[in-house]
Amino acid sequence: METELSQQLGIEHAIFGFTPFPAVAAAITRAGGFGVLGAVRYTAPADLARDLDWMQEHTDGKPYGLDVVMPAKKVEGVSEADVEAMIPPGHRQFVREALAKHGVPALAEGEPSGWRITGWMEEVARNQLDVAFDYPIRLLANALGSPPADVVARAHDRGVRVAALAGSARHARHHADAGIDIVVAQGYEAGGHTGEIASMVLVPDVVDAVGPLPVLAAGGIGSGEQIAAGLALGAQGVWLGSLWLTTEEADLHSRALTAKLLAAGSGDTVRSRALTGKPARQLRTEWTDAWDDPAGPGTLPMPLQGLLVADALSRIQKYETPALLGTPVGQIVGRMNTERPVQAVFDDLTRGFERAVDRINRIAGRSAS
To answer: Distance of CA 194 to CAs 69, 143, 172, Å?
Structure first.
């Protein structure tokens, strides 16, 4: 699975694996792909530095990258407390009632509430970059599109390529104009934040829009045959995220959540604003249904929604409340029905890719004769 881009980066397979788990990212890199560690959970720079130290020790000198959540425009002088104050009391009451309905206990007094979606904030994201640029990362990806121009310049000064996710050809052209090096064409099927266009339509549109910039295909890809399809559409690699959630190296801290993922079908996800305020594909639960119900208060815009529900989600995850327990995941969840090591997933991907190439070669051979 070599392409011009994979050769430039020195990786065996043109598979870019996004994950919030350092052990998974490192295993992806060791398997010959390109592990990308998600930074949104790291509000303390020391925690990110600790895990990047671990990555350094467990990637055998092979390349890896970091994914941040950063707006293109600077938002200075706004604290988390300022944003919290914007949340309407009625929305807080709605959260309390939803948790009470399902008997979700409160956290113990003084117990930390877990991760909060604050990586979007200027101060937090830039602190993450201050840490990351002290390490030999080879790629900086931004889930919210093109990062600020000074961040792109800072990355380029260090020889770090910059990638940005796009849900339309228009978004992709904007990234190209902003000096982005790699565009990730993320289709409607993907987990997390997505646009409205399916991968089969989106990928060739983006390839045509930004060529010769390299494009990675994302969304609905979980087999070697699907990787071959993405490359056939003009992509120079694939960006996989959901597929790693049920690997043995993943650290979901919840056997109940892992069981839900293993049992879910491709129709058991929904694009909902319940998590962050922007449409994000995730497991459908009574929690997403409540927020999407027209009779409810409706979700708040990003980042208010993420801050509003952060403590509630920590409680739901800790106590593994079955009806409410969920996670961002793509429609490919229907193929994620066994727990396997990352290397075993790679082995299946490469075998499937070879089968697809052989099949196409046979068809092409018959056509030529």
So the answer is: 14, 10, 14
